[in-house]
Amino acid sequence: MAAPLGNLESQLELFIENVRQIRIIVSDFQPQGQNVLNQKIQGLVTGLQEIDKLKSQVQDIHVPLEVFDYIDQGKNPQLYTKDCIDKALTKNEEVKGKIDAYKKFKANMLSELNRTFPNELAKYRAIRGDE
Question: Which of UniProt's keywords are assigned here (predicted)?
Answer without folding.
Answer: Activator, Nucleus, Transcription, Transcription regulation
